[in-house]
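Predict the structure of DUF3768 domain-containing protein.
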Amino acid sequence: MAQTNENRSEAEFNAIIAEQNDRFRTTWGADFTVPGQIVLTRGVADLSPAAKAIIMQRVQTFSEFTEDNDPYGDHTIGAFKFEIAGNSYHIFWKIDLYDKDYCMGSNDPADVAVTRRVLTVLHASEY
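Done. Here is the predicted structure for DUF3768 domain-containing protein.
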């Protein structure tokens, strides 16, 4: 019998969300058991293919979660800096949890059957 949200502690609930977020993020959305979309802001989309490849790799391999940047332990946001071709970039990524129609927040974010993720990658200045 599956545990309902009412029977889970906040830490257990956040750990489930973190595991799902990690599967979605590390596979760049290719794990279809955790449905969602990847969105690049215009500022990121306009970068060179080489810069976007670095960003994709850095988002997928991000593991520097701390109490400061991940206070709930759900792995919904990250940030990093990198340089390429003499340019420096400060990049944020965040995951939002929507209902199946992408209209509002999911009423049960731990249930992948009713939740869709949107991973947005943006310049820190666009936040």
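Residues 19 and 41 are 25 Å apart (CA to CA).
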